[in-house]
UniProtKB/TrEMBL annotation:
Listed pathway(s): Amino-acid biosynthesis; L-serine biosynthesis; L-serine from 3-phospho-D-glycerate: step 2/3
Function: Catalyzes the reversible conversion of 3-phosphohydroxypyruvate to phosphoserine and of 3-hydroxy-2-oxo-4-phosphonooxybutanoate to phosphohydroxythreonine.
SUPFAM superfamilies listed in its UniProt record: PLP-dependent transferases
PANTHER family xrefs: ALANINE--GLYOXYLATE AMINOTRANSFERASE, AMINOTRANSFERASE CLASS V
Domain of life: Bacteria
GO biological process: glycine biosynthetic process, by transamination of glyoxylate; L-serine biosynthetic process; pyridoxine biosynthetic process
Protein name in the entry: phosphoserine transaminase
GO function terms (MF aspect): alanine-glyoxylate transaminase activity; L-serine-pyruvate transaminase activity; O-phospho-L-serine:2-oxoglutarate aminotransferase activity
Keyword Cell division among record annotations: no
Location of the region described as Disordered in the Swiss-Prot/TrEMBL record: 1-27
Family, as annotated: Belongs to the class-V pyridoxal-phosphate-dependent aminotransferase family. SerC subfamily.
Length: 375
């Protein structure tokens, strides 16, 4: 089999920016310029002082504006990323039993976190094969329902909506890590819409953000007051109290906060979440449309209604070496199109976040055409 990495793609076919990683994702150069401009007065300074707390406040307010936060909801943040927030949810939001949707790597990891908690009942799990999605259904005794909004590993997106007939007071939790900032959402349909900044917010990892409803805030206080042991780092009340002071419990990555705030302000300046959702939908139309026309490729997610406009997965026929394609793209400066490692499919995975120009997605398909022609 020919070594595709030897193929030189013509420069005029290449994207202007070749970063298509699903996380960490493309950071806009303009954000880096803004960070550089404040480097000597911001980076390396105390996170308890106004210089940093102003940026935390800026990020929280920007998020509230971006999502048109309903009355009574709060933007809360803490260190550790989404993985840490799974444990926060286990300790501080699930009273006894959760129902969880599992249709990819990240949904299944949250299921595992819930199962491992000795103080909780085993979760009720609604499972579906990768590339599809299950539906959450009302179940007596369940006090929290959890699902990814966008499954990063498979490129499946599901609607954000409450479970009809759920017990009064049951919480809705949505893992929006690769959805927030690029998919339309009515936050009122969720109690806990949580995410990290290294995807659509075009920043680095290590931080979690959560949009909490009054019901979720009340649940966190209820569990805290019940006497359940909660490590301070994972204590949601600690995070809430610190967020209200425009800070985090322990030292955050200052660059991450600043870059996320820059991206949120940029999204707002472009037209907000509706603009971002339109832009990602345009990129998705370009890539999925190409795959449907290509004789040796097809979208992995067969149901168009479930295809993510944030992370696209494209399968290739056995006659095509998708790993070779990804390696050839990388050799030509087009990065991070490899599939999710544990999915084990002959495919490419491409991020379509708002920072990525739809014109660059079109250029990527041109590069793929060239590689397929040359191979």
């Amino acid at each position: 089999m020919a070594d595709l990495t030897k193929i030189q793609i013509p420069e005029d076919r290449k994207p202007t920016d070749g970063r298509f990683g699903s996380g960490p994702s493309k950071v806009r150069p303009e954000s880096l310029d803004a960070l550089r401009a404040v480097a000597t007065t911001y980076l390396g300074t105390s996170h308890r002082q106004r210089t940093v707390r102003d940026q935390v406040a800026r990020l929280r307010q920007g998020i509230a504006d971006l999502f048109d936060l309903p009355d009574g909801y709060e933007v809360v943040l803490g260190n550790g990323g989404t993985t840490a927030f799974w444990e926060v949810a286990v300790f501080s939001l699930i009273r006894n039993q959760a129902q969880c949707a599992s249709f990819g790597e990240f949904g299944s990891k949250f299921v595992a976190a819930v199962k491992d908690a000795p103080f909780l009942a085993d979760p009720s799990v609604r499972q579906a094969a990768p590339g599809t999605a299950p539906e959450l259904i009302a179940e007596a005794g369940v006090d929290a329902y959890a699902t990814p909004h966008n499954e990063t590993s498979t490129g499946v997106a599901v609607p954000v909506r409450r479970v009809a007939g759920a017990d009064p007071g049951a919480l809705m939790l949505h893992d929006a890590t690769s959805a927030a900032g690029g998919l339309a959402v009515d936050v009122a349909e969720s109690d806990v819409y949580y995410f990290a900044p290294q995807k659509a917010l075009a920043s680095d990892g290590g931080l979690w953000l959560a949009l909490l409803s009054p019901t979720a805030l009340e649940r966190a206080h209820e569990i805290k007051e019940s006497g359940r042991y909660i490590p301070t780092f994972l204590d949601l009340i600690t995070a809430i109290d610190n967020s209200r002071l425009s800070q985090t419990y322990n030292t955050p990555a200052l660059a991450t906060i600043f870059l996320a705030a820059e991206q949120v302000d940029w999204l707002l300046s472009q037209g907000g979440l509706s603009w971002a959702a339109k832009r990602t939908a345009e990129s998705a139309s370009v890539l999925y449309g190409w795959a449907e026309r290509c004789p040796v490729a097809q979208p992995f997610v067969t149901d168009p209604a479930l295809r993510s406009p944030m992370v696209a997965t494209i399968d290739f026929d056995d006659s095509v070496d998708a790993a070779g394609l990804a390696a050839a793209l990388r050799a030509n400066g087009i990065l991070d199109t490899e599939p999710y490692r544990k999915l084990g499919r002959n495919q490419l995975r491409v991020a379509l976040y708002p920072a990525i120009d739809p014109a660059d997605v079109a250029a990527l398909t041109s590069c793929l055409d060239y590689l397929l022609e040359q191979s």
